[in-house]
């Protein structure tokens, strides 16, 4: 490693990486506790996150529902009992959080969400409010390497704007870096959801679990970039047709559930049906020919969709990757198993490895509850010391991909192949032989990247995303191999 490339060094007692609901909630409670911290994002504005795109429908079970919700999340989603117990036994924090922020909320079928004229804008309201109450986040800094020491962690960032490497030593690291659904070719996520921190945490001793568990959402428009909420989908009365208007979905049971906006228990069956249509190269449309036009326009307005998506009384739909549920294993304090002083919150945590991996509204609930628990634990038990090793033990391999001169390595071509493969891996539950084959191919491609792809600025960021994408794909394969062995 060329030491002179690292041009800035900092110390902070607590470092939060990520400015979604999870990172901002930790920052909010640390600010309330008068603690010093630094909060960083790789994007050029702190609002660029999945949390900002979200409706922020937040699960808050009533006192007598808590046990059932805990058991359901363990049985159907494969959640870890101590973690999920901590989440729901502390879910009273959520109401206090909304009230402290002065955000009016409405009750939903499973919790609460910010009151908004457009239903899908709840996340924006929460994030905007939190950003006014915390330290100014530092932007454009990608976490590219971690190293553990006795008293904390050294984190290396690349600043895409100033073209500098920045090393930050911290006593407590909080990873709030979200999931990795952004690595799939069809996804509705913010582009930052690419999973680098999962891989970096593993390299310093964390365990990853359930990485093949991802949630594919059945109703998306604009080639996967935006999901349609159930209130709009129900206007089709569950009629899904092809280009010629021929009925594709023939199961009345499923159609009825879609019509009543009560299909969540049947998502697996709906996705299986959609996958068959895709295999047969049939485009799918929601048929709105019988829907009342005024009511439809009213729904579009309420749920924040444009009426322009309706063509010939139909909306073209595709399934899309909505969130990832695999992640970094933590204990009930959200501290990484095997790694003291490193916390993980939000979608980067391991949520579950069965079915959809978590239940609706869990993401925001978890970000808020663990935000408070992490901040309080560090505040009450924190031991701070500025002594740290002046240099990395090993040169980070991510720095080998950096060069002041951009070359013409075809990053986009490799990225397209990788993101399509990731869709295939999770859709088909491949057998052992193709998995081994894919693994070998992934390793070969990754070696090519290490040998040949070079750049700086935005291009370096793209190379890093691709490089880490191969690791994420490899983790998905290893998880699938484990599942195959247990069959
Ligand atoms: C359209 C949509 C609607 C949704 N609706 C709901 C809902 O109603 N209710 C619900 O509970 N959930 C919902 N979800 C899911 C929920 O939004 C996410 O699971 C949740 O917001 C994740 O929050 P987070 O803070 O963990 O991560 P994110 O909000 O994804 O934020 C991650 C942050 O980490 C930063 N980051 C990532 N990697 C690095 C790196 N290497 N270096 C530096 N910074 C990095 C990113 O830039 C970003 O700031 C929805 C998701 C989508 C996409």
Quick overview of this protein structure:
With 487 residues, the chain is α+β, with helices and mostly antiparallel strands. It is 39% helix and 18% strand.
Can you put this structure into words, describing what you see?
Helix 1 runs parallel beside helix 6. The mean pLDDT is 93. The chain has helices at 21-32, 50-53, 66-77, 81-89, 92-101, 122-131, 196-203, 230-233, 252-259, 267-279, 293-303, 362-381, 411-428, 432-452, 457-486, and strands spanning 6-17, 38-40, 58-59, 105-107, 111-114, 141-149, 152-159, 164-175, 208-209, 214-221, 226-227, 240-241, 284-287, 314-324, 327-328, 342-344. The chain folds into 3 domains: 3-213 and 325-381, FAD/NAD(P)-binding domain; 216-321; 402-486, no CATH class. Strands 1, 2, 6, 7, 8 and 16 form a 6-stranded mixed β-sheet that branches. Strands 11-10-14-13-12 form a 5-stranded antiparallel β-sheet. A 3-stranded antiparallel β-sheet has the order 3-5-4. Strand 6 and strand 7 form a beta hairpin. It contains 15 helices and 16 strands. It is of the alpha+beta class and 487 residues long. The protein binds flavin-adenine dinucleotide. Residues 17-23, 40-43, 48-51, 53-58, 142-143, 176-178, 188-190, 192-193, 196-197, 227, 323, 346-348, 361-364, 367 line the site of flavin-adenine dinucleotide (FAD).
